[in-house]
Amino acid sequence: MAKPSSPVSKKKPAPSALAAPPQAAAAFDRTLPEIGSLSPDRLISIKIDIPRAVSQVLGVLPGLLALRPAIAAQLQQHELALLDRLETYALAAWYAHLLWLSSGGAENALKPLLAEAAALRENLLGDAEALARRGLLDAAAVAEIRAGHGHIDMANDLVALSALLGGRWSDIAGKTAATEDEVKRAGEIGPQLLTALGAREHGKGPASTEAADKRARAFALLVHAYDQTRRAVTYLRWNDGDADTIAPSLYKGRGGRAASSNDPATEPAGTSGATAPTGPEVAPEGAPPSG
Asked: pLDDT tens-digit profile of 154-183?
């Protein structure tokens, strides 16, 4: 049984704004050896929206890192390197996703994307600020989005708004002028805009098959690292009952967001939250939980 753990914040972590492409590109470059050597049998279907998943991981990362000493002390067999590299994996998956988008000629869509993105950002940001004033959204997270300037920030802001509003949709539906379709569209147009901006600056990306392969591999690395970290958190926080707040599933808690035809938000077998071992199968102290 896990030892009593130290108190952690009960506040639900807000999704984090995504990093600028240069920072994500550097993370991708550092991860390339692992991406290239990943066994094909470790690849998984991409059934969630990658930008929103990355935003979620980055948002909960500070809380996960706060538990690192407890994980090291109580779960000596847990691979701490997965937690240490979680930010790198998240940014690498984000950049691999952008490369995949760029392989489809997104540079041709820049002008109309900019026009749509500017209007959508302003509308959703105004709605988010109104909800924050009523205590329904994290005011600091909304203010951070408002501080953005320029086209790259606009693209990242849309992803952050989609994650922030979509993650609380069950609480805010009917209390805002924003629609679920607008929230979903923000999550789609943000990466498209970043890709089009990158294509304008650097030219078209790699061939689509190569980009798709790297995207799938980078995504698999991220999901594996996050899933293993969630298992450790579940073990440590089982008695506190807040593991799903500290490290929510990437596949659940979408707040009623309608799944897209390409990325249905359904959780594949084997990636749900860990369950505490019981009876004779209780993991010995210092060993990660099974399941």
From this structure: 988 998 999 999 888 989 999 999 999 999
